[in-house]
Amino acid sequence: MNVLLRRSFLLASLIVLGTALFQTFGAAPDPASRPNIVVILADDMGLGDVSGLNPKSAWQTPAIDRLIREGRAFTDAHSASGVCSPSRYTLLTGRYSWRGRLKSGVLHGYDPSLIETNRLTLPGFLRQQGYATAMVGKWHLGLDWVRTGTKVDEVDFAKPFSGGPTVHGFDRFFGISASLDMPPYVYLQQDRSTSVPNERIASSPGMRMWREGWIGPDFRHEEVHPRFRQEALDWIRERAHPADRKPFFLYLPLASPHTPILPTEGFAGRTRTTAYGDFVAQVDATVGDLLGALDRQGIATNTIVVFTTDNGFAPVADMAALRRLGHDPTGGYRGHKADLFEGGHRVPFIARWPGRIAPGSRCDRTVGHVDLIATFAELLRAPLPPDAAEDSVSLLPQLLKGDSGRGGRESLVHQSSNGSFAIRQGRWKLLFTPDSGGWSLPKPGSPESKLLPALQLYDLASDPTESINVWQEHPKEVDRLGRRMASLVVNGRTTPGPSQPIRWPAEWLQLRPLEPWGASVETRQRVIDAAVGAATERGWRAVDTIVGEPVLENGRWQIGLERRPPTPGGHARVTVSGEGKVLRYQGGK
Length: 589
Prior knowledge:
Blueprint: H1 3-25, E1 36-42, H2 62-70, E2 72-78, H3 84-93, H4 122-128, E3 132-138, E4 172-176, E5 188-189, E6 192-193, E7 199-201, E8 213-215, H5 224-239, E9 248-253, H6 275-296, E10 303-309, H7 319-324, H8 342-345, E11 349-352, E12 361-368, H9 372-379, H10 396-401, E13 412-415, E14 421-425, E15 428-431, E16 456-459, H11 475-490, H12 521-536, E17 545-547, E18 551-553, E19 556-563, E20 571-577, E21 582-587
Parallel strand pairs: 1-9, 1-10, 2-12, 3-4, 3-9
Antiparallel strand pairs: 2-11, 4-5, 5-6, 7-8, 10-11, 13-14, 14-15, 15-16, 17-19, 18-19, 19-20, 20-21
Helix pairs in contact: 5-6
């Protein structure tokens, strides 16, 4: 073949390859046409609190219903936990929070930062892709305050804190440190308080509950929601037509309708139901104001809007009173905030992108907040590094095509307020606890819970209210899900890729039920000791041995070992059973 023919053949090949890549991935995104992204996260609001998802709702949510009409509603969407902090960590990192230090419960306003220093976050990733990023609202992921004493609230409010939103990917931040019922009651802007607290406020009871603590002179609880609304609208107006042509990402984690339940003038009494119903109406009106701002600025068609909530309905909002009105805030599911049952973490999840997402559509596939970062990474055709978003699976195909979209999530892990686990795969859901794991009956540690089976298996296809435990009838499903859960814990990730480290405490009680499948602190240490012991029998010194992250597959552990300093033949791979028996040794002697 002469030079001319070779060049012609090469050119034709490149054209064919380029056409194939274009058909597979689409054209490379134009920096000026990348969609803006708005994620609205309501606080303690149930699936049944959205009238478009609950025909028997006691009130109407016209703005959120508009999103449903103009976008896609996901009917099987989940927060990562039944409570606040772990849900927010997972949404922003694409990694289950229990892989880090928070094994149960939530943080408070003075707790240190939860997100690890070098961890890539959703805003950090989007900023790498050229986005301007902003957060307005409730952080609840810890801050590293400058401390002045040993008491929890002895901090210097005049000095900047670290570990906050601006350290983790946000260009702009205005908000509060934790829930609106947790001190300190100060506004935060960028990396400092807007004022220094000069008095302490007494606690408030009931649905208007907040805890006693420091409060700033410019802070009033009832003004927080309106302030967040205005700050978000100001950001949209500022970034609608910027000189730098950067698209924007707005994360709006509202502190409402969480306690204190404080609908303001114009909303109090509007629904003729309860104060909680009025507060939901105020949340909905804020959603409507944001949609109106996008319309007025002419940027609605190039903006993805996601509305969801951080967990299920909180019983402090008086579920009994709502049910007397015929309103079920859980949407018919069992449990509520804090629980492993569906009412604790099955949440509204609605996405709109005019011209790309079919209006009035729905998707019944299982998805989670954890999937947002992988979704936007696929949208922008920007690969995530192997040590980031380890549990995030792109739902872009489902976002654009619904149930017919390719791929999707194979399984999903749930966690309750006390740190108990459940795993969902298709129609099956296995709870590794005999109780709710949260606040509903049967409560953890209660006398009735001690009489129940240690595991709960539900077939959500035939029993969506989780009323019949079928663990005895389906032992193969129990074993399969137990093995899957154990591997997800030990391997440090859900997605394909190298095993990632997680934080193993000296004791992890919530993993005890996974002992039969090998995922426990004790089993892990037994396996590591066996692998290192096998190496020392071959002349290695334990103190000179670096142990890699173990991998668990089909009940067998794979552990990589490395000598230090590096030497020829100083690598080994050991296969060990959960009982600590070395099954295979490959590598250096």
